Amino acid sequence: MSFKTADLCDAHPEVLIAQPLFRDYGGRATFGGPIATVKAVGDNSLVRAALSEPGDGRVLVVDGGGSQRCALLGDRLAALAVANGWSGVLVHGCIRDAEQIAALDLGVKALGLFPRKTEKRGAGERDVPVAFAGLTFRPGHCLYADRDGVLLSALPLA
User: Is the pTM of this model over 0.90?
Assistant: First the structure.
């Protein structure tokens, strides 16, 4: 997938732009695709479940409530995402294993890094609208991300 978010903004003034909260961690700087969502704070059980399924070029948007108490994505789950064909993961929270994730062909954006893993309680929701960074991310909408930012559109743009 080849695009620049700046060019997409110029060509599609209706596109929504996320607040610039996220840092790049994945080995793929530019990524995008239809969205799947997980809403879970302090528990990445549903993140694992989602990334265990075929990604088909989708982007998993994880609403961790902006928590900085644990990591919702690490190297094992990121490798699982690559193996199952996910384009990227956007985490409203923290990740860990940054060095290993940077070596993977996966787009990863998150608020920051934190070395502690999550608890595993199976808590949370999947495929529901999640809201953060000034936007509401809905399953099936399209996300486009590069080093310049994160865009959201109800329809495919690129």
Answer: yes
